[in-house]
Amino acid sequence: MKPGLRSLNVRPKLWVTLGLIVILTASNHDAFAGTVRGHEAGTFVTVNFTYDGASNAGLATYTGDDNIGGPFSGQDLEEYSFTGGSCTAPDSSVGTVIVLVQATRNDTYKQGQLYSAGVGAADGTGCVSDTTGRVGATLTLSVAHGTGKFANASGSLTTTITAQVLAAPGSPPGSLGLFGGRQVTRTGSVTY
Predict the structure, then answer these.
(1) CATH number, domain 32-191, options 1.20.1300, 2.40.350, 2.40.10, 2.40.50
(2) What is the model's pLDDT at position 83?
(3) What b/e readout covers 108-122, taking b as 16+ CB neighbours within 10 angstroms?
(4) DSSP string of 25-68?
(5) Lower Cβ count inside 10 Å, N or C end of the chain?
(6) Residue 191 near residue 49 (C-beta atoms within 8 A)
(7) How far apart (Å, rounded) are the C-alpha atoms in residues 103 and 116?
(8) Whether the model pTM is above 0.90
(9) Closest Cα to residue 118, out of 147, 98, 142?
(10) For residue 126, with 0-12 CB atoms within 10 Å meaning exposed, 13-18 middle and 19 or more buried, which class applies?
(11) Band of residue 21 on the pLDDT scale cut at 50, 70, 90
């Protein structure tokens, strides 16, 4: 075969291959960019873990469902400080203001894991009832990245938490730890 004819044979194959790559990339149905809507429910318990050495964090374990990846399970570590300020708890009782020290989340979907974190009052505040154990908090966490289809994820997740302390052993109550249940709604904006 002459050199000129061989190059003509290769070029159409190259263009077809490049065209297929473009089509497959453009039709990635697993990609997501938009508003997050979801919910989760689970439990929390005080753990021997601290971000700042001042107090222990709480570990939440939960399951849920959202429009990012469907059903998921997860864990999150949240440490708060008490400001001493007064607030109204979700059940309308008088409470004490809490401010986020730091939080780290790991949500596990079938398609991979999504990681998010936040630090300080700008990322989370809440109110704990002084009498009933009812808790309300809102966290806005930055999506850091993940694994699988979430490897390049970015954005933010806002979780609105309503919780109930179910056990608070010790004197004063809670000095030996806390255990409770929680319900959460998820909103935000995530791209992957």
Answers:
(1) 2.40.350
(2) 86
(3) bbebbbbbbbbeeee
(4) HHT-TT--EEEEEEEEEEEEEE-S--SSSSS--EEEEEEEEETT
(5) N
(6) no
(7) 8
(8) no
(9) 142
(10) buried
(11) very low
Task: Show the tokens assigned to 3.
Answer: 């050199």
Amino acid at 20: L
Amino acid type, 9: N
Question: Higher model confidence: residue 158 or residue 28?
Answer: 158
AA letter at 51: Y
- The two tokens of residue 143 are 């999506």
Q: How confident is the model at residue 28 (pLDDT cuts 50, 70, 90)?
A: very low
Neighbours of 137 (CB within 10 A): 23
Locate the domains of the chain by residue range: 1-30, 32-191
Phi, psi of 141 (to 5 degrees): -110, 140
81-120 tens-digit pLDDT: 998 899 999 999 999 999 999 999 999 999 999 999 999 9
